[in-house]
C-alpha cells in the first residue's frame, strides 16, 4: 500500500506482513518472564502504532474538508481510513452516544492467515499480542484528529475483531 | 505628499506553522525589509483570528482565506484536520491574488509538512522544526510562487 | 484422482501428510499399506524420492554441471531433475523448492504432469497460510493449521474433477 501520491511508488504487501510478524515476535520473545515486562512490551508496540497513526492521520486527511464533530471523525476512521489500511470498511459501528464506540470487523485482514489447531481460548491468547499495534494506530489517528481516547481490542475466532474506543473528556 | 514606491510583485514574506497548542513550530522570514519580530506578532494575532473565524461561521474548508491586511502585508490562514495552522503573509502588490493560487500554495506546504511528520527521525516534542528537507521544501515553494505576475511597464 | 500428499522440509522431516484414498473405493490400494503408520510410510517415501533425485542429478550432469539445452534464451529447458515416476498402480510426482521443501503427491497412473499444480500449492497455499501465519514458529513442527488443511483439501478436490 503506497501513500506517496506524488511518486506512485508501491511496496509489496507481503513485506509489511512479514515485518509485522517479526515485530511482534521480537517484542514477545525477549525475556517475557514477568507479567509486568509483558505489559511493557505490548505498550511499546502500542506506542509504535500510536506514532504511525499520527503520521497516517496527517497524510490521509490532507485533502478532505474539516470534520464537524466526533462522530464524523469516527465515520472517517470506519470508512476511508479502514479501506486504506485494511482494504475494507468496518462492518459494524455501535455507539452509546456517551463517548464509547464499538467497531466490529468481521474479517480482519491482518489475521486472515492466522490459524492453529489449539482451542478457542488458546487461540485468543496467542492472537492478542498482534492487536497492540492496530490499537495503537487507531489511537494515534484519533488523537491527532482531536479525540483523546483509549482503544481496547478483542478477537472472536476465526477472524472477527472488535475494537472498543472510549473517549476521554479532556 | 511623498510617493511610496508601488510594489509590482506579490511575494511571500513569511511562512509560519503553528502547532495544536498555538505553539510556533516554524516561522521563516523571506522578506528583507520587515523585521522577524513583527511576523511573530502577526502570527500570534492570526491564531486568535482563525479560532474566531471557525467558531463564527460553519466553515468546512481547510482554507480560511484572507484573515486581515495590515499596511502592505496580507495574512492568509489554513487550518488542517489535525489542528495545525499554516499562516502565509504576503507583501501585496497591485496584482490581485487569486484564492485558487493561495489554496494550491497551502496544499503544497501541507504536503511538505506531511512528509515531515512521516519522517521517523522527526521528534514530535521538539519545539522548532529544524529538518533541512522541510526548510528546503518551503524555500522551494516560496521561490516558485507568484512567478507569473506581470510587471506593468 | 489424487491419493495422498506429503510435505517434507529441508531437515528431512515430514511436516504434513494427507490422504484422500478412503474417499473412493479403491480396493487395490487400501488393502496392503493400511497397517503401516503414516510416519513410517513417509520415511519410506522420502527415502525413495531422495535416492531417485540424486540418481537423476548424477545421470544428467555433464562434468558436474547440469546440462542445459542450447536453445533460445526464452526456451531454455532447465534441468529440473527428478519430476515423477509411474508404476502400474500409481504415479508419484515430486516438486522441490529452492528452500529445500519437497512436495510429493501420489495420483492414479493416468494423470498428466502435476508440476504446475504442485507449484500452485506451494505458492498459493503453503506460502499464504503457513509462512505468513505468525502462530507457526519453527519450520520443524508438523503443520497443525486448520486453514491450511481446509484450503489444501478444497484445492485438491477441485483438481480431482
UniProtKB/TrEMBL annotation, chain A:
One of the GO biological process terms: endoplasmic reticulum to Golgi vesicle-mediated transport
GO cellular component: cis-Golgi network; trans-Golgi network; TRAPP complex
CDD domains, A to Z: TRAPPC6A_Trs33
Listed InterPro entries: NO_sig/Golgi_transp_ligand-bd, TRAPP_component, TRAPPC6/Trs33
Domain of life: Eukaryota
Family recorded in the similarity comment: Belongs to the TRAPP small subunits family. BET3 subfamily.
Name of the protein described by the UniProt record: BET3 family protein
UniProt organism field: Anaeromyces robustus
From TrEMBL, chain B:
Transmembrane portions of the chain: none
Origin: domain of life: Eukaryota
Biological process, per Gene Ontology: endoplasmic reticulum to Golgi vesicle-mediated transport
One GO location term (cellular component): cytoplasm
Cross-referenced PANTHER family: TRAFFICKING PROTEIN PARTICLE COMPLEX SUBUNIT 2
Family: Belongs to the TRAPP small subunits family. Sedlin subfamily.
Protein name: Trafficking protein particle complex subunit 2-like protein
Automatic annotation (TrEMBL), chain C:
Location of this chain's protein in the cell: Endoplasmic reticulum; Golgi apparatus, cis-Golgi network
One GO BP: endoplasmic reticulum to Golgi vesicle-mediated transport
Pfam families: Sybindin
Keyword list, A-Z: Endoplasmic reticulum, ER-Golgi transport, Golgi apparatus, Transport
One cellular-component annotation, GO: endoplasmic reticulum
Stored InterPro entries: Longin-like_dom_sf, TRAPPC
Keyword match Transport: yes
UniProt record similarity statement: Belongs to the TRAPP small subunits family. BET5 subfamily.
Quaternary structure and partners: Part of the multisubunit transport protein particle (TRAPP) complex.
Protein name: Trafficking protein particle complex subunit
Originating organism: Anaeromyces robustus
Amino acid at each position: 500500500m503506497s501513500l506517496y501520491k506524488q511518486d506512485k511508488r508501491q511496496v509489496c504487501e507481503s513485506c509489511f506482513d512479514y515485518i509485522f510478524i517479526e515485530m511482534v515476535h521480537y517484542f514477545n520473545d525477549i525475556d517475557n518472564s514477568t507479567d509486568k515486562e509483558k505489559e511493557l512490551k505490548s505498550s511499546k508496540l502500542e506506542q509504535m502504532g500510536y506514532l504511525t497513526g499520527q503520521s497516517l492521520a496527517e497524510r490521509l486527511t490532507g485533502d478532505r474538508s474539516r470534520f464537524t464533530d466526533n462522530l464524523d471523525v469516527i465515520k472517517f476512521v470506519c470508512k476511508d481510513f479502514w479501506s486504506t489500511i485494511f482494504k475494507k470498511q468496518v462492518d459494524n459501528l455501535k455507539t452509546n452516544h456517551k463517548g464509547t464506540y464499538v467497531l466490529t470487523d468481521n474479517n480482519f485482514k491482518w489475521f486472515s492467515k492466522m490459524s492453529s489447531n489449539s482451542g478457542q481460548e488458546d487461540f485468543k491468547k496467542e492472537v492478542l499480542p498482534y492487536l497492540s499495534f492496530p490499537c495503537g494506530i487507531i489511537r494515534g489517528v484519533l488523537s491527532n484528529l482531536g479525540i483523546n481516547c483509549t482503544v481496547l481490542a478483542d478477537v472472536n475466532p476465526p477472524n472477527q475483531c472488535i475494537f472498543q474506543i472510549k473517549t476521554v473528556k479532556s | 505628499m511623498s510617493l511610496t514606491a508601488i510594489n509590482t510583485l506579490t511575494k511571500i514574506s513569511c511562512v509560519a506553522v503553528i502547532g495544536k497548542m498555538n505553539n510556533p513550530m516554524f516561522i521563516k522570514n523571506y522578506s528583507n525589509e520587515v523585521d522577524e519580530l513583527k511576523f511573530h506578532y502577526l502570527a500570534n494575532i492570526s491564531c486568535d483570528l482563525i479560532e474566531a473565524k471557525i467558531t463564527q461561521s460553519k466553515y468546512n474548508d481547510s482554507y480560511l482565506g484572507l484573515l486581515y491586511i495590515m499596511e502592505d502585508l496580507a495574512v492568509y490562514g489554513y487550518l488542517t484536520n489535525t489542528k495545525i495552522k499554516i499562516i502565509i503573509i504576503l507583501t501585496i502588490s497591485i496584482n490581485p491574488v487569486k484564492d485558487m493560487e493561495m489554496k494550491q500554495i497551502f496544499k503544497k506546504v501541507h504536503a511538505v509538512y506531511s512528509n515531515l511528520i512521516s519522517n521517523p527521525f522527526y521528534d514530535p516534542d521538539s519545539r522548532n522544526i529544524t529538518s533541512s528537507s522541510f526548510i528546503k521544501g518551503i524555500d522551494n515553494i516560496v521561490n516558485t510562487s507568484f512567478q507569473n505576475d506581470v510587471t506593468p511597464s | 484422482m489424487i491419493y495422498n500428499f506429503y510435505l517434507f522440509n529441508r531437515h528431512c522431516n515430514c511436516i504434513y501428510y494427507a490422504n484422500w484414498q478412503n474417499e473412493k473405493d479403491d480396493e487395490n490400494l487400501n488393502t496392503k499399506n493400511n497397517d503401516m503408520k503414516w510416519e513410517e510410510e513417509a520415511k519410506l517415501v522420502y527415502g525413495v524420492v531422495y535416492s531417485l533425485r540424486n540418481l537423476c542429478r548424477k545421470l544428467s550432469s555433464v562434468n558436474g554441471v547440469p546440462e542445459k539445452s542450447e536453445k533460445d534464451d526464452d526456451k531454455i529447458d532447465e534441468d529440473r531433475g527428478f519430476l515423477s515416476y509411474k508404476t502400474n498402480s500409481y504415479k508419484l510426482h515430486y516438486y522441490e523448492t529452492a528452500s529445500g521443501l519437497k512436495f510429493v503427491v501420489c495420483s492414479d497412473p493416468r494423470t498428466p504432469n502435476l508440476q504446475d499444480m504442485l507449484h500452485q500449492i506451494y505458492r498459493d497455499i503453503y506460502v499464504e497460510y503457513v509462512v505468513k501465519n505468525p502462530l507457526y514458529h519453527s519450520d520443524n513442527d508438523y503443520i497443525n493449521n486448520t486453514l491450511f488443511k481446509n484450503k489444501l483439501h478444497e484445492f485438491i478436490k477441485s483438481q480431482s474433477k
